Amino acid sequence: MKNKYLYVALIASTVAIASCKKSFTDKPALDGTTIDNYYNTAEEVRSLTSTLYGLPWSGFENRAMDCIGDELAGNEFTGSGNSDDYPFQSFTISSNSVRLADAWKMFYKIGGWTSEYMNALTIKKSKGGNPTFIDPAIAECHFFRGVVYFYVARIWGDAPIVTEPGRVILSGDFNIPRYFKADVFRYALEELKLAEAGLPETDPQKGRLTKYAAKGMMAKLYLYTKDYANAKAKALEVINSAKYKLVTDYAGMFNSSKNNNNEECIFSIQHQLAGNPWGTANQKQCDRGPSNLATTEANMWELYVPTVDILNAYESGDTRRKGSVMEHGWSFPSWKPTNASNPAYNTFMSGGYKYDTIQPTNAGGQKNETRANIAKYVVGPGAAYGGETVLGMNTGLNTPLLRYADILLIHAEAILGAATSTTDAEALKSYNLVRARAGLMPKTVITGDDILHERRVEFAFEGDYWFDVQRQGFAKAKAIILAQNRGTTLYPKYITITEDMLTLPIPAAEVAQDPELAKPPVKYY
Description:
The protein is mainly alpha-helical and 525 residues long. The protein has three domains: 4-199 and 505-518, Serine Threonine Protein Phosphatase 5, Tetratricopeptide repeat; 219-268 and 403-463, Serine Threonine Protein Phosphatase 5, Tetratricopeptide repeat; 271-397, no CATH class.
């Protein structure tokens, strides 16, 4: 547990972060400033908390999010030769998994940063700092800390809670126990409540947090823990605010950075391409985009592709399919990739990009194990080829972690609660709004399975479906996984799971450094 990424709190760093850069996600410079001579203006304080919106999320967002959220859930497929990712497809995940280690480091990094940021800002406030901009910044920290512990509880279950990383480092006592999962959820909820109380109703800068992001995330947590009354209440507060709505162009949310921070996005990881984009940009395109769309500007190697099972889940006429998946016949006319050494390819793509599984691969065709690619987070071949600016692996597309569609489906499910079905008018209204955007007919009665199905196709490849499967309880989660073809059409593969697989192992390196993590959990409260 001595791993610096767990506590991430060089004590001086929190008082030395001193960037006046206006960019929302710029990494701040460490230039020796102190609490006494800094954090005197709103710009300085907002510069501090802006660091929480982008860069630190990369350890989870890049690949771990795919593995945990969609590969475990049966939405994404990868080849068996991919030793880092395939175990999530086959439920053979070891405590030495690099994906788990990356996610763990990221969540506790943000937990450490927020804790020390709050400490610095509280000291500044006690020294006469202006509460009108310090208090909202502290609330931002509470939000991020609540969100990361919500993820920690869902992924690992019983887990450490670290609120004073600086004290831990100074003391040298790194023997931190695991706390019961219920306590980790409670802690996350308490943090989100503090965020709700301190965040503003609105913010002039798009993408910055407001109290409705906290309300929405609380609704999601309440639903997960089956507190249906509070889930309904919080979802309804977001709905009644009239601050959000479903965007008409579903696909556009995921194929153009021009649509970043749109009216459906409540909370998103913020990305940018300026300067050196490593870590501050979105790197999902390279892992999802089809190899025949790669150009001199854009890298694509299709590490993850849709499973046969998710392809079979879409209803006929569901427009989200085209916005989420590339299949034979899919096209994007404004993208015009070329290959200087392949005239046949250039001829085939002369009218714009075409996804074709019949055309020979050496002449523009595209074939992989499931004959499909993920369309979400693929912004195209680059500016010189009719797309937007792309820098190798990097795009400027944000990653939404909470959308208004989620709030609507949470609202519908919270009304349903533990009942078998519902005809409640408000539940149907919220549920059918999501279906209507997808071009589907409304339903007059809905069940839990209806909502689970809707959530799967609405949020496919957004790193969320595993948590929906997991919260069904072991018996139903096992039945869902057992029914999935986790192989290909030609080589189907069906697996089963055991109850302990609903949560994932703590990284072995962490246990080696903190033997308390191998012991039974204890109470936090």
